[in-house]
Amino acid sequence: MIAHWDLIQGSAEWLEIKYGRVGGSTSKGLFVDSDTLIDELISARLEPFELPDDPYASPAMERGNEFEPMARRALQEYTGISFSECGWLQSEENDLLGISPDGLTKDLKTACEIKCPGRKKHTQTLREGAIPLEHNFQLVHNFTVNPHLERIYFCSFRPECKFDMFVRYLDLNSLVNLGTKSKPSIKTVADWAILARQKGDDLLRAVNNGIAQLEF
User: Fold this and answer.
1) pTM higher than 0.90
2) Which of 73, 125, 132, 144 is deepest in the core (most CB within 10 A)?
3) Which CATH number does the domain housing residue 186 bear?
């Protein structure tokens, strides 16, 4: 695994290194039987990267950019762990797989994933007392890419709220649902990471085969 510590998330260089790869936000695609992700990855190998003329940042993205540094400091105080910023972790076993952790210790063993949600979503997380299901794929993907990772902290941070921070962690033995509430699919993080790597290898072969077929 290659750690790009000095790469700034959101920069042109960061967008380029992510181009044509499966990161945290698209990691659910590893478990979806569809050609959508394959077509996206093949197209990225057929055309060079171009920086968007007017990259769009939603209000939620802007909020995350504003509050993430504050949340990381609060999480460091809460855990006593020093998290460094890291732009991108690249798997050396599979060129398709990478991740942008919100924080990572220098020994690569502990990471964090920070969300700065709206009022209703933060309250819902507090009331349910659990990591929202929609974030589990991204959390597991950290373990898929980083073979040194032992623990990842999830932090929901909203400074406007009286209860501004919700924190839970996952380790390799944690049970995680990558299904739904009505149709759960539960395995340990370690088992999911193994399966994700296998599916990543299958995806890489499908992409390479797809390009080879186009060349004939």
Assistant:
1) yes
2) 144
3) 3.90.320.10
